[in-house]
Amino acid sequence: MNFQGKETSETITVTGDFGGTVEKSDKKTSSNLIIDEPEDGEKFKKSIVTVRGRYIQGAFVQVNGNNAMVESDGTFITAIGIHSGENKILVQAVSPSGEVLEKEISVFGNFKDQSLRIQEKKGSLMIDVKSPADGEKVKNMIVTVRGKTSRNAIVKVNGTNAMVESDGSFIAAVYIESGPNDITIEAEGDDGEKMEKTISVIGSF
User: Fold this and answer.
1) What is the percentage of the chain residues whose pLDDT exceeds 70?
2) CATH number of 37's domain
3) How many domains does the chain contain in total?
4) Which helix (H) or strand (E) holds 181?
5) CA dihedral angle for residue 113, residue 48, residue 195, residue 137, rounded to 10 degrees
6) pTM
7) Which domain does 187 fall in, by range?
């Protein structure tokens, strides 16, 4: 599915159910696209940052390539992982008419990255979910998923790339609804081995 912006050469390519990526030949910004948090240049002592903002009704929004949750009034929210030092946060939005806008800010991780080196043998891929617990009741719409996998593995949580440290520790943020929610963690080792694990949490809000 392609959207051609009015009076601009910007194009967004979306595959499936809005699971696409934004492709542009020109960059355009607008005061209508507002990032309420975090502030540009803000420092954080944690590796998960909530991004909130506002655009227009019916918009499609991505933050660093991942789909944000957009409310009916155009407000959007997502959570991203950051590392120590400077991190770019790129918000890209598509209006119902096809206009493509973007806004970029920087935040700084003020913490030490994990640097523990662990030697893993091939065939030793594993997923150890530290939190949340299976069956846990949570009162927040955003749940932070933490765990550990094999070194150099790629991890996805409900289809979105997790932030993986050098020792295999991973962290991601997912949205849940009221009631039962499945959280699926997928891991792929550098030797091509794959595995997945699913837990359930209960949204109590």
Assistant:
1) 79
2) 2.60.40.10
3) 2
4) strand 179-188
5) 130
6) 0.55
7) 127-203
